[in-house]
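Table S2 (continued). Query chain:
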Amino acid sequence: MTNHISKAYIILFVSTLAVFGFGVFYDWDSKDNCENRKLAEMPSFSFSQSYFIDLESYVTDHFSFRNRLADINSTIRWSIFNSSIKPDQVQNGKDSFLFYTSNTDYLYKSLTRQNLLSAKALIALDSTLVKRKEYLAQKGIDYFMAVWPNKSSIYPEYLPTHLKKHIQDTISRVDQITHYLSSHSGIKVIEAYALLKAIKLDDSTSLYLKNDTHWNNKGAFFAYQSLMKGMNMIPYNLEDFNIENQEVVGGDLVNLLGLCNQQSFIDKDLIFTFKDASIKTEKLTSKINNMHIRRNYALNEGKTILIFRDSFTSAMLPFIQLHFKECFVVWSSYNEGLVNKLKPDIVLVSKTERYF
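Corresponding output:
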């Protein structure tokens, strides 16, 4: 009897290994990968150490039912224990606010105010910006800088309590740089911190997406108004748009949690449609890497603007494009060669706080 039981255990063990082993190569897992990362690919065979290292990574990422098991693990940790599978990247705040906390993406040090510049770095930055502005002025190009708040800067009250304890008792890097530039060279940085905080107090609806790192369209609209005023232009008002409510499911922070079922992560946003139907705009592709063009056919004699930006500027672009004949939109830092090639009327560097 004992011999039969031993054989049964051996057969069960070998069968289990076979199921999980063969699944690596036959893709038996019907569940999608929801980890917001690219899984390792099967390496080309060679007698080398790197091949076996890459093969191990592939097997680890593709054993049978891995995606399903990973989703179950993420769901249990979040639903039952209210715990993030990636606490070094996403943490759950109060009132269902999720916060991005990655230290590899500058956010954690920005949030906790551990990224202040040295006196030497401030002097170098000021000198660089003065030279850049003077260089562009000689070419008849206006230069502007803008910085936009992290979600935690507008909604610090929703941060996890333990995370608040890590915030240093000092000014933020944004305040440090803007005050230094203003007092030494007179360079003004466009921002919307005070405006967004004031609107938050008067309006119960959120300006940022709870499940995402970014602001919603309403927050982007008020930032756009600040931007236009900072560039000495007249922005449009809320009354110039038809505004509808919409529900948003999920978000980039939910993706980081590794949850396949995101239906419980529902947020509210607004859809803005410009009332003047005579203004026609179009988004065009470009042969230049990381760049697209937004053309406004109602402004044939208007100005052109070159925008160096990150993801926070994306929601503002539908509003910005209403004011320019062409918007050259580049996902990169300032590039003088591109300025000389495109010869815009205005150059704007638009960054979120953590990249400033």
